[in-house]
Amino acid sequence: MTLYKNDIGAEILLETDFVDLSTASSIKINVMKPSGTEVEWIALQYDDTTQIIYTTVSGDLDEVGTYVLQPSIIRLGVTYLRDAVETEVYD
After folding, report:
1. Which residues contact 90 (CB under 8 A, 6 or more apart)?
2. Full residue range of the structural domain in which residue 29 is found
3. In angstroms, what CA-CA distances link 44 with 28, 50, 61, 73?
């Protein structure tokens, strides 16, 4: 998937390696933008898979460059941080 600055409605899928996300009380993506600004995006489980999905809204992809995305799952009171991935956002 190719992402562009100010894309709205782009679906971002990330792998979590969890077999059962249905018991998660929180599913987020920790985001570090190219400028170093850190934000959180509230994600959802994607179908019955181990993936999570987030659909971008206005302001999410407001910078050109490399974004670092890290799934964060709270399940049974424990926070699990999964492997971060980098994705490029183009002008």
Report:
1. 2, 3, 4, 5, 64
2. 3-90
3. 8, 11, 19, 10
Q: For the domain that residue 50 is a member of, what is the CATH number?
A: 2.60.40.10
Residue 57 contacts by C-beta under 8 Å, 6 or more apart in sequence? Answer: 8
- In this prediction the pTM is 0.93
Q: What is the 3-state secondary structure (H, E, C) of the chain?
A: CCEECCCCCCEEEEECCCCCCCCEEEEEEEEECCCCCEEEEECEECCCCCEEEEECCCCCCCCCEEEEEEEEEEECCEEEECCCEEEEEEC
Total domains, the chain: 1
pLDDT tens, position by position, 32-48:
999 999 999 999 999 98
